[in-house]
Design goal:
- This protein is of the alpha+beta class.
- The protein has one domain: Alpha-Beta Plaits (2-Layer Sandwich).
- It has 4 helices and 5 strands; from the N terminus they run βαββαββαα.
- The mean pLDDT is 90.
- The protein binds flavin mononucleotide.
- The site of flavin mononucleotide has 16 residues, from helix 1, strand 3 and helix 2.
């Protein structure tokens, strides 16, 4: 049975955030565990959706994500059965952390001073889907 985890976290203030390293490590482990998903940052927070078998998600989440020093205050927003993968082609789609994607988020959610922390699980899942489409249209790279 397919499962999902959706969580939000804060970028660690005292630890330099290396997005390339996070994504490269994530893509390697996730593809070995048949985990897919997407990661986005608004510059201060992360939101990540993980899709796969429950045991694989628990392994990746507890062994890799929870112990990463690049973020803190991890809060699970949603978990449970998942009908079908939203990101079947991505071991981890990195949707950026720049002002272009933040502007899209602001206009979609309709809030200025957008923050991932203020969004509901459904808003964030919609946002990740739309940002992936935006990335693909502007020649994003699949890892
Ligand atoms: C926001 C975030 C998302 C991550 N997602 C994954 C993931 O999907 N799969 C995985 O194996 N590791 C994941 N990691 C772990 C990183 O790939 C990497 O191992 C870790 O960030 C390196 O350790 P450090 O953050 O302590 O420097 C994630 C880490 C962070 C901070």
């Amino acid at each position: 049975m397919l499962h999902h985890f959706l969580y939000v976290s804060d970028l660690a203030e005292e630890y330099p955030c290396d997005f390339q390293k996070i994504i490269a490590n994530a893509a390697m482990t996730n593809s070995a565990c048949d985990v897919t998903g997407a990661l986005w940052s608004d510059g201060r927070h992360f939101v990540q959706l993980l899709e796969g078998q429950k045991a694989a998600l628990e392994l990746v989440f507890h062994d890799k994500i929870a112990s990463a020093r690049s973020h803190t205050n991890i809060r699970m927003l949603s978990s449970g059965d998942w009908e079908q993968r939203l990101f079947p082609d991505w071991s981890m789609a990195y949707l950026g952390s720049g002002s272009d994607t933040r502007q899209i988020a602001e206009s979609l959610i309709g809030r200025k001073k957008f923050s991932i922390r203020d969004c509901s699980a459904n808003e964030l899942i919609n946002l990740l889907t739309i940002l992936e489409k935006f990335r693909q249209d502007s020649a994003g790279i699949a890892i």
